[in-house]
Amino acid sequence: MVEQNNNKEVMYNEDDLRQLLIDENIDSFREIFLELHPYDQAQFYEKVGPDIRKTIYQFLSPQEMALIFEAIELEDEEYEKFLYEMDTAYGAEMLSYMYTDDVVDVLNELDEEHRESYLEMMDSETVEEINELLAYEEYTAGAIMTTEYVSILENSTVRSAMTVLRNEAPNAETIYYVFVVDDNHRLTGVISLRDLIVSDEDTLIHDIMNERVVSVKVTDDQEEVAQIMKDYNFLAIPVVGQNREMHGIITVDDIIDVIDEEASDDYSKLAGVSDIDDIDAGPFKAAKKRLPWLIMLLFLGMLTASLMAQFEATLDKVAMLALFIPLISGTSGNSGTQALAVAVRGIATGEIDEKSKAKMILREIMTGLITGIVCGIFVIGIIFFWKHTLIVGLLVGAAICCSILVATIAGSFIPLLIHKLGVDPAVASGPFITTLNDVTSILIYLGLATTFLGQLS
Amino acid sequence: MVEQNNNKEVMYNEDDLRQLLIDENIDSFREIFLELHPYDQAQFYEKVGPDIRKTIYQFLSPQEMALIFEAIELEDEEYEKFLYEMDTAYGAEMLSYMYTDDVVDVLNELDEEHRESYLEMMDSETVEEINELLAYEEYTAGAIMTTEYVSILENSTVRSAMTVLRNEAPNAETIYYVFVVDDNHRLTGVISLRDLIVSDEDTLIHDIMNERVVSVKVTDDQEEVAQIMKDYNFLAIPVVGQNREMHGIITVDDIIDVIDEEASDDYSKLAGVSDIDDIDAGPFKAAKKRLPWLIMLLFLGMLTASLMAQFEATLDKVAMLALFIPLISGTSGNSGTQALAVAVRGIATGEIDEKSKAKMILREIMTGLITGIVCGIFVIGIIFFWKHTLIVGLLVGAAICCSILVATIAGSFIPLLIHKLGVDPAVASGPFITTLNDVTSILIYLGLATTFLGQLS
Q1: Residues 413-452 of B with CB under 8 A from A
Q2: What is the C-alpha to C-alpha distance for residues B457 and B392, in angstroms, rounded to an integer?
Q3: Which of A132-141, B1-10, B127-136, B383-392 has the lowest mean pLDDT?
Q4: Nearest to residue A436, comparing CAs of A299, A318, A260?
Q5: Is A153 within 8 Å of chain B by CB?
Q6: Strand order in the sheet with A216-217
Q7: Which of chain B's ends, N or C, has fewer CB atoms near its CB within 10 Å?
Q8: Does the domain at residues B283-456 carry the CATH identifier 1.10.357.20?
Q9: How is domain B151-259 classified at the CATH fold level?
Q10: Shortest Cα distance, chain A CAs vs residue B305, angstroms
Q11: Quick one: CA dihedral A74, A79, A81, A87, positive or negative?
Q12: The CATH number of B11-139 is which of 3.40.190.10, 1.25.60.10, 3.40.50.720, 2.60.120.280?
């Protein structure tokens, strides 16, 4: 996509850059390469082979390399591969120049032994910060925050705040917010750079800071943090501990990744793939990701078949009944997935909470009734005009109506139940609930048919 | 969720605020209310009834109200409702204080006549800007950009840039980037506030600006813009015309909305709901959104039934065959949805382009073969141990293997085809492709069964 953008034609020529590396033309390479945005640097770095990357390590300092590693977007296991290409000392130095949240992402992918060997080579203050972050549970605010932020004391002046900012600018992840703390490093306020630059230099921070600072706890779920930042349009949010002591900040770029990740996650679970596989993955890797679902569902499908076997006698007598099995199970699956999707997204975005739960279930029961009756009537009509039989039509119509009602209630109730148990409701995903609805809808259909068998023959 | 956050307990008491309005205690109300973040103000504003909102309009100036209206998150049609509660002159003045991108969002929801009446009351310069934005097609960069940004000429100094920033700070949507333009207002560079505050005041902007500025065109798709901002971690991106003349900027908060919207959109299409209905919608509204899909799929299901009718004789002879119909159509539907989800997300994120298309199809064919063979073998084994028949097992296994292969190819090929035709590939959504795969898989199954019928009885 990037290549299609005409505004970027000035950017760089990949082949030229590669040639400069092959020719070991260090000066020209650095001149062109270091002008690039870190994202473009990372794209180039990922694309060239390991031999050429070796030359890049020679030509760039660990500090310059750190910017690339922060901008890189890799499958988790690839970080390891790239890191092990480097000399360990070089790698450790590079890591020490990265923002702590990014270092933690990388170190989380390494085995214990390698992680330790890198940490041993880094200075003790950084190691302490990193170890603190490594200790937080995955998907919490603590795990995605960074410790590089700018803080000042309440009784500073705007002038001294600006001096602090100028000094911290090269290191802090954002300098657009300055966090105000007391002597115990407890968060008491926030002030934006926007406010600072329009204020008189002698003003006390205490007089212009915003005391109603919104913060999150280190243990808060990342999805909750994302929701707050989205609602308030923040560029960064402070992360505090039990006594409001500042631990770090989370910046908007990390939140975009969270939003993207969670949405993809819900989406791929609805589709029954453990995650949306990247396009470069080979067929074996793709098959490996998809097979667990397919095989699990095969077994559930066998369950459906064995339940149907109980009605084999009925099917044997009226073969026409079999014609409508896909229709009934399909319709019930579709309405269940619709209800499920609404419930899963509602829970994920926080729109459905304790209070609105009962209301939602009630709404879904009504919706299931309405859609069930409408679809049932349609089916009776169609079958009557097609097969000229009212009794089969009534049977199929009644089965469809009941199945839609049951599927709609299940689709909204099951995610709520799973959420209550503290599990991500998206695991009650599409294929799973579809198979469940298959079973119930066929039971309803063939159960009704067996009961009224006398009328059918 | 917000209520659960202990850090926010200091925020405000809704009932107290409401009481202040009922008591017409303007001073206390303003003192507390104006301290709140606009998002909290908007939440309160939305919750109270129209009578109390009338008092809010009396107590707040149009400028103060503009902040609330920008922060509000409404269903499209609700903007209209709130706006019409206000006096027209008050509403028009409020609109003129809002950022142009937000005004355009509101005006887009009004009918021609009302829109004109508001525009007539606003000053001509603002109206011109708004009309320019209203003319851009929906979902393009032009339609979501704002025209409130800070720009300076190349030959300015850092000092004069800072002066411009201080003056523009109250109006510009972001002051963290300053865009550098030439005499014809063509974009030539960008400089961040971060760079400005660490530079010497007499430095020329031209010497420190970044000339490799990444920009988008007014006609670019909003999804492309989101991808670029996400990749580069920008807080804002400039939007230019044909000759690189600056038209506006898009800020990160708007991009978060785009990412959210597009992901929800793909998700709801996979689930077969036109959009994820909001929790407050009644059952009739919800049913209305879901029924079109269900009924369309009912007709397709009838098509499946009428195709199966061709094989009624076969089903009549071997009733056992009917037992495996849900299994086969379910498995084929599942594998088709998996392939579809990967393709739709790949196209949406730009990972799949012209070059990687052929590679992806090839990968999917291989993946379909592998998953098909593995599932087929499983099924043969299960049926052999359950029913002690090899021939039915072979038949069902072969049908499953073929159906998975066909479904996987269809799941990846159809979205590519639809995308090629210039339509959003997500319309080839889950239920649709599932039904298609139902038909083909049952045809394969019953076709094979009829061919080998001699062996079956």
Answers
A1: 430-431, 434-435, 438, 442
A2: 10
A3: B1-10
A4: A299
A5: no
A6: A216-217, A236-240, A246-251
A7: C
A8: yes
A9: CBS-domain (3.10.580)
A10: 5
A11: positive
A12: 1.25.60.10
DSSP string, A102-165: HHHHHHTTS-HHHHHHHHHTS-HHHHHHHHHHHHSPTTBHHHH-BS---EEETT-BHHHHHHHH
Six token digits for residue A317: 């007598």
Instruction: Please provide residue A145's backbone torsions phi and psi, each rounded to the nearest 5 degrees.
Output: -80, 165
Amino acid in position B14? E
CATH 1.25.60.10 fits A2-136, yes or no: yes
For an interface test with B, give the residue of A44, A150, A194 to mutate (most B CBs within 10 A): A194
pLDDT at residue number A177: 92
B276 touches chain A (CB under 8 A): yes
pLDDT in tens, A28-38: 999 889 888 88
**Could you tell me if B399 and B441 are in contact, meaning their C-beta atoms sit under 8 angstroms apart?**
yes
Distance CA A421, CA A323 (A): 40
And the tokens for A70?
């922060």
Matching residue, tokens 């993809």: A264
The CATH number fitting domain A151-251, selected from 3.10.580.10, 3.40.50.300, 3.30.360.10, 3.40.50.150: 3.10.580.10
Residues of chain A with C-beta less than 8 angstroms from the C-beta of B227 = 1
**DSSP-assigned states of every residue in A368-421:** HHHHHHHHHHHHHHHHHHHH--HHHHHHHHHHHHHHHHHHHHHHHHHHHHHHHT
B294 neighbourhood in chain A, CB within 8 Å: 331, 334-335, 338, 371, 375, 404
Residue B121 is encoded by which pair of tokens? 């009351």
What is the helix (H) or strand (E) element at residue A205, kind and residue range?
Answer: helix A205-208
Place of tokens 């009829």: B450
Question: In the prediction, which pLDDT does B5 show?
Answer: 38
Q: What 3 state SS string does A346-375 have?
A: HHHCCCCCHHHHHHHHHHHHHHHHHHHHHH
Q: Among all residues of chain B, which has the CA nearest to that of A266?
A: B267
Reference A333, options B265, B418, B444, B437; nearest CA is B437
Q: Which residue of B has its CA nearest to A297?
A: B331
**pLDDT tens digits along B165-202:** 888 888 888 888 999 999 999 999 999 998 898 899 99
Q: Does B277 contact A342 at a Cβ distance shorter than 8 Å?
A: yes
A 350-369 residues with CB below 8 A of B?
A: 350-353, 356, 359-360, 363-364, 366-367, 369
> Are A301 and B404 an interchain contact pair (Cβ–Cβ within 8 Å)?
no
Token reading at A106: 């990388």
Banded pLDDT at A157 (limits 50, 70, 90): very high
| Interstrand relation of A177-181 and A151-153 (parallel, antiparallel or unpaired) | parallel
**Dist. CA A266–CA A114, nearest whole Å:** 33
Domains of chain A by residue range: 2-136, 151-251, 283-456
Contact A302 B382 (CB under 8 A): yes
